[in-house]
Amino acid sequence: MVDSLVKQQKIEITNVSHSYSLDDHDLPVLEEIDLTIEPNEFVVILGPSGCGKSTLLRMVAGLERPEQGSIKANGEEIIAADPSRIVVFQDPTLFPWLTVRQNVELGFKIQKKKDDKAISDMLEMIGLAGFDNAYPSQLSGGMAQRVALARALVNDPSVLILDEPLGKLDSLTRITMQKELVNLWRNKQFTGLMVTHDIEEALLLATRIIVMRQRPAHIIGEFKLDMDYPRHRDSEELLKIRREIFGLLGHKSDW
Amino acid sequence: MPSFPLYFRIPILIIGLLLLWQGIHLFLNIPPYLLPSPYSVFIAFKDNQVLLWNSALITFNETILGLISGCGLGILLALMMSLIPFVRQWLMPIILISQSIPTFALAPLLVLWFGFGISSKVVMAMIMIFFPVTSAFFDGLTRTPAGWIELGKTMNASPLRQLLYIRIPAALPSFASGLRIAAAIAPIGAVVGEWVGASSGLGFLMQNANNRFQTDLMFAALFLLSLMTICLWGAVTIATTKLIPWAEDTREF
Question: Keyword annotations for this protein (chain A) (predicted)?
């Protein structure tokens, strides 16, 4: 329990390989992944859909165990899920029988905590003030995903794991949410670990981009981004990195 | 074709069917002990009002008690099966075997064990009811979307809290379907029990009327019974849709 109170977590992924067994053969999804994530980084893993990135995230969250290799948080093997590492999925997975406020409060309820102010502050911060009593079925996709973010962040995780959280939103909502994610990350002092297949998104959010290639997924490139936020999509530096990433993924730079 | 609302279609249907029935009766000249005319059923109803309503009240009580105890048993079994693997593995076959026995065949046995009074009928209804409730609720409990369960895990929810906060609410729409089926078959359970051995109730009344060729009285009792079943089903349906609004119902009646 004390572990989850430790705010900073250093995640060490060492030599992780994993495969799924299909009917007649094994399908390798991850191959020899080595990655260390320092506290307060915002690491974005970029790669084509279905290349095993999500599996890696689930392992960091403690929802799955790797076949080979180890994943450690502050030197301790991750063997189970923990409130200090919370996942936000592509689908908001809200509970339809609970209001917005009750959804955000659920983590507290389960852990027998009560802090009305923390809930109100979080709702305010994420732009949901006044929607306390709305039900998920009354929300738009962007609003629902905001609730999912609030539900995760109110537990004050040290690592926020984002599995293509904006993947299903329309492009305009997406741009707004990207800005908000950056603001949240800067205000709340958590480590961000996100998976996306959107280069723009990676460039705007990440302090470090890890490029993966698929089947089995392995790391083919790494970019450190030390520009200030908010970033401009068409800044020279970003365009340069963007070209390099396209090249790495096998697209010509003049495309 | 214009579409008419339910409250408009039902009276039209009932009046139409009654007219058709009366018409057939007039033209084919069927003896009343085979098929009474709607008019004579109405007269039988009027003449035996007190007896009919009193019998219906008894059957209604048995049905409600059966429904409550059957639901209680159904909920308990489903919860135990979903929480304890041992119970699931050993109880499921027993429940399945119990359902392979025709309930009608059990009725005389129940009368022997529980007597001619109300309890044998309540048990009969309970036996018929618990299965759809257990089956639907258990299904719902085992089919919680994986994302919700994982969310519970990351919030450190113990199995009991997972059940309480996530799996039970998630299973309520399935439970409601089971309950609606239960409400529709509960009166059958009570009447079957009465049919075999009773001194009162609609089933008892129908059997007596049948033996005495009072077919009109029999039809009047039948009419009351189906009215009761429809009302019960309607009440349960309305209650479940009110209490579980997130189980979106897109059916059109």
Answer: ATP-binding, Cell membrane, Membrane, Nucleotide-binding, Translocase, Transport
Does pLDDT of B34 surpass 70?
yes
Mean pLDDT, range B55-79, rounded to an integer: 94
Shortest alpha-carbon distance between residue A35 and chain B (Å): 22
Residues A80 and A188 in one domain: yes
Has this prediction a pTM greater than 0.90? no
B232-252: average pLDDT? 78
| Mean model confidence pLDDT for chain B | 88
Dist CA A193 CA A234 (whole Å): 24
Residues A121 and A194 in one domain: no
Is the model's pLDDT at B50 over the cut of 90? yes
User: B246, A97: Cβ pair inside 8 Å?
Assistant: yes
Cross-chain CB nearest to B148 (options A82, A83, A95) = A95
Are residue A20 and residue A146 in the same domain, yes or no? no
- Domain of residue A176: give its range: 7-84+161-255
pLDDT: is A236 or B225 the higher one?
B225
- Residue of chain B nearest A96, judged by CA positions: B246
Beta strand spans in chain B (E): none
Cα separation of A154 and A167, whole Å?
22
Which residues, other chains included, contact B102 with Cβ-Cβ below 8 Å and sequence gap of 6+? none
Residues A42, A165 within the same domain: yes
CA torsion, ordered B61, B66, B69, B74, to nearest 10 deg: -150
Q: Quick check: is A1 in a domain?
A: no
Q: What is the pLDDT of residues A187-217, one digit of tens each?
A: 888 898 999 888 888 888 888 999 888 778 8
Tell whether ipTM is more than 0.90: no
**N residues, chain B:** 253
Q: What is the pLDDT averaged over residues B138-150?
A: 91
> Pick from A81, A87, A109: which is nearest to B165 by CB?
A109
Boundary-marking domain end, from A156, A175, A210 = A156
Residues 229..248 of A with a Cβ closer than 8 Å to B: which? none
Residues 147-206 in A contacting B (C-alpha not used; CB under 8 Å):
155
DSSP helix/strand/coil, A128: coil
Domains of chain B: 47-250 (1.10.3720.10)
* Nearest chain B residue (CA) to A156: B155
